[in-house]
Amino acid sequence: MTTLIDEVAALLAAAAGEETVATWRRDRKGVLTGWCRLSSADSLEAIGRAIASIQGRLSMVTAYLTEKAREKGGREIAYHFDLDGATLTLTVPLPLEGAQVPSLTPIFRNCDWHERELMELYEIQVVGHPDPRRLFLADSVPDAPFERLIPYSTFTNGAAGKALWEKVLAAKEKP
Amino acid sequence: MTSVIELGPHQLALEEPMYFRVKLEGDRVAGLDVQPGQVHRGMEHLVMRRNLYQNITLLERLCSLCSNSHPSTFCSAIEEVAGVAIPERAEYLRAVADEIKRIASHLFCCAVQANLIGQTALFRRAMEVREIMQRSKEAIYGNRMDLAANCIGGVRYDLTPDAAMYLARQMEAMKAPLDELYLQFQNNPAIMARTAGVGVLPRLEAIECAVVGPVARACGIDYDVRKKSPYGAYDRLEFSTSLQQAGDVRARNLVRLAEARQSVSLIEQCLAGLVPGPLCADLLPEIPAGEAVAKSEAPRGELVYYLRTDGTDFPLRLKWRVPSYMNWDALKVMLHGEPVANIPLIVNSIDPCIACTDR
Amino acid sequence: MQDQVKETPAEPVRLFRINTGSCNGCDVELAVTAAVDEFDVEQLGCRYTEEPHEADILLITGPLTVRARNEALRLYAEAPETKVTVAVGVCPVSGGVFRDSYAVDGPVQRYLPVDLNVPGCPPRPQALLAGIAQARDLWRARSKGVDAVFAAPPLAKPADEPAQQFPIRGRMSFDPKACVDCRMCRHVCAAGAIHFDIKGDKGDRHLRSQSPGSPEGVRLTLWHNSCVFCGLCSHYCPTGALSVTGDWHLAHRGGQTFRFSEQGEVPYTPCSGCGSPLIAVAPELLHAAFRRPTPEIEHIKTLCPACRQQLSIGAVRR
């Protein structure tokens, strides 16, 4: 297992410079999870190719708004890779406005849906995606429903629940 | 001659709504566009507006066929963030719940497969055998689909000695029918004629598509999260990964039936190892700011959860990737060159879960 | 009931399923009513059809997602006028755990009338059969034009029930006597099925009250049509005020959807020091905390927080 840690350290340094370091946690069952923050999305493709070269498998892509996104103006994407049972998470910081990442679909075929999904849920542009259509969202749903900085319509603000409860309570009043 | 057809849930013989746009050359499949979203309930958004406790129940309703895998893996992620080790008894009880669900899920898939190749008697037989599991679930957990077995820090059900004996008897009753079903899917000439060499996914393309679960193991890919990244009780349970090499519809069904039979053994091992002790580590543990990845082997394969917390009991982000999400793409390979008539069978052979995929 | 078996018409009543975005729990259980002898809808004189235009009974599952809506409404419109619409599970009528999502457009009553609801998450096949039997009777009555006088027959309990060793998770029940108003139940309820309000907050002045104008008690309302029967409220309830019953005989007419609730009131009692209203400590909580309370504890429990503070530290410090 230490060989895996060394191997990943070498490829991260080669692809993104010496300052790119993963820290590893080993859980009670001995399963490794590695965590690595990149300074920007610039080295993402190089790291992606390096991970593919050691038979790493893209496992999941998580886009999210960070804590206090409005003040700090931050969002991140976490790319999770499987390395034969160990999970390596690469976190890429992105600006709130005009966020762009290169598509990893040319490197990992299964990144296709992950990227299509994050494009429809967040205001992030995936540059070079071969098929950037909507995936899960109905046409009538506005773009980027996960951008919590934009106020929701009353429809998604618990309005439906409130209206139903008024009926339930009213029904109790009249026997 | 090239043409394009649209197929919906009725043409695809799916229990759930899903749409395909299929390109044909003559009567053979030449291309495929999968169009999900009918069951998209915005769940990854809902979980951020519900607290961690509410999300246990919400996630159990992601999909009822693998319903226990979601809360158990989600709770593992919380426990990892909180640094909580669940009691040994709870580890066994989580494994029991997961394996019970696996047997019922695999049997449902194999029943549907039998129905699609016109084996009505076998279809009804598989559903009858599955009823043993359904009755067991209702007797132990109070519901036939959603077990409500998990809580943060452990489980919220116990097996009394009586209940454990009942479950052991039910497991005994599963053995012969599961063996018999395996032999049918393995050797029955009528079934082989429809499933062997059909919907083939070659091993290299399986790796490229990054498929998981029985779909991967049917192509000879030796990957099972219970082995690769042991969690809960699985580091103490004896089992081997079920593998097939042919990568066809038949191989996928055989992997599932072998796994269902193996799950019976896993449940028996859990019952034998069920040490006395608490069910839950801490009823209301402190959940600090942090992040964690938790994985499990759901009935359809590798399930991954990523949780990010900020010290409140609302998740800042909770993301998960279900096994079906990884397997749709491989249908392009499996269906290529197949006649239109084989589409429903091949699609159902990946045991696709649409509620899981769409969230 | 046995007399009617012979009257079953040769033409079966046809059932058609519409999945509007469900977790597939109800759908898989409906599949059981087509595939497993014990639960086969044939015993009710029904059969499933794949053709919406010949549907006598529509079985609707799921919370009605935005994306599934048009297709669901198209199928609904294609079924004949006399159709009976059954909402299966709680999702169609209340959204259940999926309520208030940007992707959910339910409840279905916004778009179409629901004749019958079969709660459950999912309902067990016995409950589905009981609901389908009611829908069948309703359809027969409606076909004869006697909808208005139709009354749902009381549900007979299946014969196998006494033999059942373990309780199933059915309707929840609330015991206000054990409630301490901690509201943990509401906190953990994913389905928003529990509502708290203060009784006597406005109006209701005719009821006896210690000091006029003060609230009389806390009221909990449990809406069975939103509840998903997970029992998490009862798991986290410190006093057992919420409990799971084995009652799964829950099918009811669509018009009763908002009446299908249970309410309990936890009265305020006056503080023995200053008279301000407080929630009495339930014996269940006292027992859980102290096992055997001392007279001092028995006294403290009748005091409001301010009077308790005064008792222990002498005066309220500001």
Structure in words:
The complex is a heterotrimer of chains A (175), B (359) and C (318). In chain A, helix 1 runs antiparallel to helix 2. By secondary structure, chain A is an alpha/beta fold. Chain A has 5 helices and 7 strands; from the N terminus they run αββαβαβββαβα. In chain A, the strands form 2 sheets. Chain A has a 5-stranded mixed β-sheet. A two-stranded parallel ribbon of chain A has the order 6-7. The mean pLDDT of chain A is 88. By secondary structure, chain B is an alpha+beta fold. The longest helix of chain B is centred in the first third of the chain and has 29 residues. Chain C is of the alpha/beta class. Chain C has 2 domains: 162 residues, Rossmann fold (3-Layer(aba) Sandwich), CATH 3.40.50.12280; 142 residues, Alpha-Beta Plaits (2-Layer Sandwich). Chain C contains 9 helices and 12 strands. The chains are: A alpha/beta (175), B alpha+beta (359), C alpha/beta (318). Chains in contact: A-B, A-C, B-C. Chains B and C meet through helix 2, helix 3, helix 6, helix 7 and helix 16 of B and helix 1 and helix 6 of C.
Identify the notable features of this structure and list them briefly.
heterotrimer, A: 175 residues, alpha/beta, Beta Polymerase, domain 2, 5 helices, 7 strands, 31% helix, B: 359 residues, alpha+beta, Cytochrome-c3 Hydrogenase, chain B, 3-stranded antiparallel beta sheet, 8 strands
Helices and strands, with pairings:
The complex is a heterotrimer of chains A (175), B (359) and C (318).
Chain A: H1 2-16, E1 22-26, E2 32-37, H2 44-53, E3 57-65, H3 69-72, E4 74-83, E5 86-95, E6 99-102, H4 111-121, E7 124-127, H5 159-173
Helix pairs in contact in A: 1-2
Chain B: E1 2-7, H1 9-12, E2 19-25, E3 28-35, H2 43-46, H3 52-60, H4 69-82, H5 88-116, H6 120-141, E4 150-151, E5 154-155, H7 161-187, H8 189-195, H9 203-209, H10 213-217, H11 225-228, H12 249-273, E6 289-298, E7 301-310, E8 315-321, H13 323-327, H14 331-335, H15 343-349, H16 354-358
Antiparallel strand pairs in B: 1-2, 2-3, 4-5, 6-7, 7-8
Chain C: E1 13-19, H1 25-35, E2 46-48, E3 57-61, H2 69-78, E4 84-88, H3 91-94, E5 116-118, H4 125-143, E6 172-174, H5 184-188, E7 194-199, E8 217-223, H6 232-236, E9 242-244, E10 252-253, E11 261-270, E12 277-279, H7 283-290, H8 295-300, H9 305-313
Parallel strand pairs in C: 1-2, 1-3, 3-4, 4-5
Antiparallel strand pairs in C: 5-10, 6-9, 7-8, 8-11, 11-12
